[in-house]
Amino acid sequence: MTLISTIIDLEALYGEPLEASILKETDRVVPVYRALIEASPFATLATRGAEGLDCSPRGDGPGFVRVADEKTLLLPDRRGNNRLDSLRNILHDPQVALLFLIPGVGETLRVNGRAVISTDPALLDSFAVDGKAPRTVVVVTVETVYFQCSRAVVRSDLWNPDKHVARKSLPSAGQILAAVSENRVGGEAYDAGLQERVRTTLY
């Protein structure tokens, strides 16, 4: 196997970045980037902790990540599985990265920054849905923002409904759990109640 082991070799192989790829990076949420964040119902949150890396899916209605100002994003931590991987990592290392996706749009938006975890009552209440507030809000101080061109989405044909995968063609959540836990959890009973559990525990 031939490996790249130095920055010099890497840059020699790929060449100089295009001017646009450099100029598109900002150190704040400018209005055109704010429009993308406010249209996005889904993002991934990347963190780093003592036990390694984590990349967690986050989603809600469009604009669920609130732009408080040009240097601050607010991300409610909605109900989940209580593993707390992202939050544990933030306490260890505040550096975070967000990748925003917008259904039907090829471009994505990347944000890098530093995060803290807030339990401010007024802030939590401002994110309440159906009277249910998140337990915490991740407050991200923005360091860099830039959009990613559409090539990855175009190559993957991600938003093409004709390419959607039938859920039943893949192992179910219950089957996956049963397989990896040696049948301690999961199975048909887990699958039977899954949709209702998700519906009633969204917030």
Automatic annotation (TrEMBL):
Residues 32-149 form the Pyridoxamine 5'-phosphate oxidase N-terminal domain. It comes from Microvirga aerophila. PANTHER family: FAD-BINDING, PUTATIVE (AFU_ORTHOLOGUE AFUA_6G07600)-RELATED. This is Pyridoxamine 5'-phosphate oxidase N-terminal domain-containing protein. It comes from the Bacteria.
